[in-house]
Amino acid sequence: MSMWMIWFAAGVILIIAEMTTFTFYLLWLGIGAFIAALLAWLFPESIWLHILAASVAAILLAVFGKPFAKRFQTGKGFKDAVDELVGKHGEMLEPVAPGSMGIVRVGVETWSAISEEALDKGDKVIVVNRSSTVLHVLKWKGE
Predict the structure, then answer these.
(1) Which of 7, 19, 78, 127 has the most CB atoms around its CB within 10 Å?
(2) DSSP secondary structure string for all residues of 20-87
């Protein structure tokens, strides 16, 4: 397999991963990989040029693309899919105690979870907040 194909495949994988996260960091890395793919196609023997170009492009895009990403994420109509978990119900798969994490299933996904109260496996919970990849849950007492 040619080096440009490897860089191109890395770019495609990173862009697809970006589409699921909307963090913009993977987008910049993906664009850097595409630039390296182009250089690998033009100069196949200069592997250090590919690596350097991908690195510099990703760093510059991350630094100068941050205002664009922030504007997009705070723009009208943008809604992070993970924020939609707040208010949904789930089930504890692993117990959680105050100060330690457990595992909760919300829909078909599993997440790390914390709670201010002890929760046992099988307890029904409601998501009250999230921080990065951790959901804050409370025991659901029904309506």
Answers:
(1) 7
(2) HH--SHHHHHHHHHHHHHHHHHH-TT-HHHHHHHHHHHHHHHHHHHHHHHHHHHHSTT---GGGGGTT
Summarize pLDDT for 13-68 with one digit per residue, the tens. 999 988 877 677 788 899 999 999 999 999 988 889 999 999 999 899 888 887 77
Supply the Cα-derived Rg of the chain in whole angstroms: 21
**E strand or H helix that includes residue 93:** strand 89-94
Whole-number pLDDT of residue 80: 64
**What is d(CA 113, CA 111) in angstroms, rounded to the nearest whole number?**
6
79 pLDDT band, cuts 50/70/90, is low
Q: Residue count of the chain, please give it.
A: 143
Q: What residues does 92 pair with on adjacent strands?
A: 104
* Separation of CA 96 from chain center: 24
What is the distance between the alpha carbons of residues 128 and 89, in angstroms, rounded to a whole number?
10
